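JOB MANIFEST
job_type = single_chain_structure
chain_count = 1
residues = 336
[input]
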Amino acid sequence: MNSPQLDIPVRAPSATSADDTVLPFAVETLDLRGRVVRLGPTLDEMLARHDYPLPVAKLLGEAVALTVLLGSALKFDGRFILQTQTDGPVRMLVVDFTSPGKVRACARFDAGRVAAAIEAGKADAGALLGHGHLAMTIDQGGDMSRYQGLVALEGGGLEDAAHEYFRRSEQIPTAIRLAVAEEFAAGGQHRWRAGGIMLQFLPKSPERVRVADLDPGDAPEGVTAHEVPEDDAWVQGRSLISTVEDLDLVDPDVSSERLVYRLFHEPGVRVFNNIDVRVECSCSRENVEAMLKSFSQDDRDHMVENGVISVTCEFCSANYVFEPSAVRPEPSQDNG
C-alpha cells in the first residue's frame, strides 16, 4: 500500500518582489530552514533621517538586515537588539527590532576618522568597525529575564561576527549573506536597498549536528583534536547559498520566492507567509518628559540652552523642546 501523500500546495514562485518583508522557507528533505529579508522604503526612510557618510549608511543597512533576519524568528512578542561597541571609526551601531516587524536603528561615528578611512580607501565594514564586540539581546518584556550573547569583533564584518556567534554560542550550522546597495533614479536621486538570507541546518536527530570541539578546547597538549565530518545535507545547503550574489539580494526584479526557488528547486522548497517590516520609533513626548523628570535638578539645569531643554532622538531625529518648569517633578506629598 502506498503511504498517504501530504497535501502541500505547489505553485510557481512569485515574480513580484515584496519589499520590506521577511520570507521564511524550509527545505524539508535536507532539514534546512531559512529566511530572506528584503528592505526598500523602510531602510531608505531610516537612513534618510540622518546625514550619514555613505560607508556608515551601508554598514548600518547591513546591521538592520541582519537584525531583521534574526529578530523575525522570535516566537513571542518581544525585542531583539543588536549593538556593537568598538574602537573603530564607527564606534557604535544599535538596531532595535520589536516583533512582529517594527525596527529602528542609529549609528555613532567619528566623522574625521570616517573621512580619513574613505580617503585612504579603507572604509570597508571591518575597517570601520575595528575591534570590540557585538551584543545580541533578546528581551521578552515584563518580568522575564533578558538573554544576551556576545561575540568579538576583530577586524571583520557583521557576516563574520554572525557566523562566529552561531558557531560558538548556538552551535547551529548557519550561513548568512548580507547586501546593501544604492538604487539611483532619474534626477540624481537615490534610494537605499538591503537584503539578506540566512540558512540553518536543524535536523531532528542531534547526532547529525555534532560539531568539533571549539579551539582551544581542553585536550592535553600534543593530542590531535578530533574531527567531525559535516552532514551531507548541510554541505549541499551551504554550497547552494554560497552562490548567492549581492545583486540577488537587492535586485527588485528578483523576488524572494524566485531566489529560494532558484537555489533549492531540486530538493524542493516550501515558503511560508511573509512578515511585514516597517520603521517605527518608540520615542514620544511623554516618554522624554518622564525621562527628564527622573534626572536631578542639577542635571536638568546643565541641559538648559537658550532658556529651553531640547532633546533629539538618536533613532528617528525627532526633536522635543521643553520649558524647564515643565519637566520639574511634582513635589512629593506627605501623607503621614
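[summary]
Residues 1-5 have pLDDT under 50 and may be disordered.
The chain has two domains: 21-219+229-279, 285-327.
exit_status = 0
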